[in-house]
Amino acid sequence: QVQLVESGGGLVQPGGSLTLSCMMSGNIHSINNMGWYRQAPGKQRELVAEFITGGTTEYADSVKGRFTVSRDNAKNTMDLQMNGLKPDDTAVYYCNINIWRLGGALYEYWGQGTQVTVSS
């Protein structure tokens, strides 16, 4: 099994910064992709940033230039550095990972989420 635990959420003023961390444990070999998603009240969950095959990163247009995703393979962690936060960034942020299993099946795992609130 795979466990994902997010941390680092909280309340921050507009223009402020936060760093979210995702601690991954369990059988996390053969990773296809991993990333961060968010879900605001009344909205669908959306991709924020991710590492895809080959280590390339992709970002939602709304966060380009403000957010940076990074990973530490030795520590099995993935961070999301968020700068220039806006009220529209308010959401629950989720860590996500997709892993190849025997037989060619792709398994998806989610963390429990961490709340980010941007407000003055």
Low-confidence stretches: none
Q: Please indicate the percent range of residues in DSSP E strands (runs of 2 or more).
A: over 45%
Global mean pLDDT: 95
Q: What is the H/E string?
A: EEEEEEEEEEE
The geometry reads as elongated
Multimerization status: single chain
Major beta-sheet overview: 7 strands, mixed
Global structural class: mainly beta
Distance between the termini: 40 Å
Helix count?
0
Query: What Rg is obtained from the alpha carbons, in whole angstroms?
Result: 14 Å
Features:
4-stranded antiparallel sheet, mainly beta, 120 residues, single chain, 0% helix
List the helices and strands and how they pair.
Layout: E1 2-7, E2 10-12, E3 18-26, E4 31-39, E5 46-51, E6 57-59, E7 67-72, E8 77-82, E9 91-100, E10 106-110, E11 114-118
Parallel strand pairs: 2-11
Antiparallel strand pairs: 1-3, 3-8, 4-5, 4-9, 5-6, 7-8, 9-10, 9-11
Structure write-up:
Strands 2, 4, 5, 6, 9, 10 and 11 form a seven-stranded mixed β-sheet that branches. Strands 1-3-8-7 form a four-stranded antiparallel β-sheet, with no helix packed on it. With 120 residues, it is an all-beta fold. The chain has no helices and eleven strands.
